[in-house]
Give the backbone structure.
Amino acid sequence: MKIIDKLNHAKSEMSKQKALYQPTAFWADASEQIARELVDAGIDQFRRTPTALGYFVPNYSGSASGISPEQADVLRTTLQGNFPNAKKAQLALEHFLSGAQAALADYRVLIAGDNHHQLPWLHTFSESTYGHPLEQFEWSGKRYSRSALNYLLGLSLLKRHLHDDIPRCVLEIGGGFGTLGEIWSQSGVPDWQYIDIDITPTQLVAEQYLKAAIGPHQVSGFEEFPQIGEVPLGSLKQAAVLCPWQIEQLVGEVDLFVNFISFQEMEPDVVDNYLHHVNRLEARWILLRNLREGKPLKKPGHPGVKTPIKTGDYVTMLHNYELVDSNVHPFGFQTVDGFHSELLLFKRKSV
């Protein structure tokens, strides 16, 4: 099936669902633009399409660094023009502008913070090049992107609390292009399983990425499952990418639920509904990354949310869970203008 046909099929099915499973205000326009860019460029180029880069393919360089490409060019030209022989200064500037300096800082935290003797293995991970990434770094023969390092740092925090309780089945909502599934496939966890639930077209990107990264026969998409009736977790392949409404069909128990950044782009009622199902599936651990101050409000011409999600909202929604850790430094992130991307770790209360 051609990409445009797969997109149209998924969009048609999504349009029939309740509002809780439709793209929220933050994503409504972007999802349409991403779909158009994927059709034009091809899914195998998704890591360099403009809207994807702004929404679910995070980089260290460019606008994410606080310096636009145009401003970066001015800095390079100014330094080279005024100090043409200052080679070390030029290398230092390029190390910063390319994102390599920030990426190396995260990698150093990963190496220092991860226990190499405890599952899940994180030190063995190396990222696929599928999607033709604009930004990917290599250390010790292994490849990393910002998406990969974000997850690896969060999992480093999780491992500090797991002890002998090693999660096998991982459920994620809003999994971007499937990075966590790729990490879990290399984690050394026996009988691992990864389920990603996301809106169209991101779910299609994640499905294709995981098929390229871990093998097409280990990954299934939403079209392979019945539209009605229960779907036992044990009936899924090792990796599965489903659409939002299909979470209602899942039955079984999840060991770990993860959401990185995408809940902060949703409205509270949508998040509350998803967390209801996470509780229904009896996840033992919940690992979140959320902007402590909440996403900006939606304004004409600028993406945003109607009502920001903040730390206290999760505590209220997750009444069957206790907050066991929160972290901005070193495993989360603080922006230069003072916003806090905070990791939150919850554990299910004993019954």
